[in-house]
Amino acid sequence: MSSPLEDAISDIGLPSEWHVTVEIRPRRSTLGIEVHPDGSVLVAVPEGVDTHEVVATLRGQADRIARAVAGRIAVGGEHPVKELVDGEHFSYLGRTYRLRLTEPAGQPVRLHGDWLELAVEPNGRPQGAALVEWYTAQGEAWIRNSTASFARGAGVSTPQARVCDLGVRWGMRGRDGRIAVHWAAFQLPQPLIELILAHELTHLRVGKHSSLFRQELRKLVPELSARERWLADVASEVWLGATRQAA
């Protein structure tokens, strides 16, 4: 059974996927709002605080909370370092492949059955840059085939889109209306790439990570909260290009 304070918070109309919970903490002297890694929101309330004060604070902080919840779209954390040797594992569109070094052929990198083949010159060292270029090219093809339909769903014109290294961001919307997706994102399962793309397309309509932004994004990704938690769970498994020499 919910408390009067929880009922009042519910009546604010915050997005349901924020999973807001309330804890009374007698030792606190001020109201605290915590956004956890899974996107849940904890409101830590001093004992005896006025309900109207809590509601007013939450209304005033809604945009900040939305930005924090949306922070789950960031790459962040530590990521694997790969050895470019036969049998090393790489992912593409959520499926795992084993690396196989081959002699130079028509393509520097290609998928062949369960193998991701990387061509290496005789007496040469395998280059991780070739794999990054391959992911970038594959990503650009995926983006070309997907952006238009998602843009229609978002109610915006199809923007120019590119795939590149975005550092600690999965996606980005430029001031010129172009969007970009990190090349490393194409190691993820397709539903998560779609989340990243939908996120950036929604920014073409709503600039800030506000509650309105999330409402619009949910039109493209109805299971928004579940996909964001999924992305947060697997983000650190994604390879960002770091390699080391085999022992």
Written account of the structure:
The structure is a single chain. The chain is α/β, with parallel strands linked by helices and 247 residues long. 36% of the residues lie in helices and 20% in strands. The chain has a 4-stranded mixed beta sheet with strand order 5-6-8-7, covered by helices on one side. It has a 3-stranded mixed beta sheet with strand order 1-3-2, with helices on one face. Strands 9-11-10 form a 3-stranded mixed beta sheet. The model has no long low-confidence stretch (mean pLDDT 85).
Query: Uncertain regions: pLDDT < 50 for 5+ in a row?
Result: none
Tell me about the biggest sheet? Answer: 4 strands, mixed
Counting DSSP E segments of at least 2 residues, the number of strands comes to 12
Number of helices: 6
Please tell me the overall pLDDT: 85
**Structural class of the helix and strand makeup?**
alpha/beta
Q: How are strands sequenced across the largest beta sheet?
A: 5-6-8-7
SSE succession: HEEEHEEEEEHEEEHHHE
Distance between the termini: 60 Å
Portion in strands? 15-25%
Please state the CA-atom Rg, rounded to the nearest Å.
22 Å
Q: Helicity level, as a percent range?
A: 25-40%
Structural shape: elongated
Q: What labels describe this entry?
A:
247 residues; alpha/beta; 4-stranded mixed β-sheet; 3-stranded mixed β-sheet; 6 helices; 36% helix; elongated
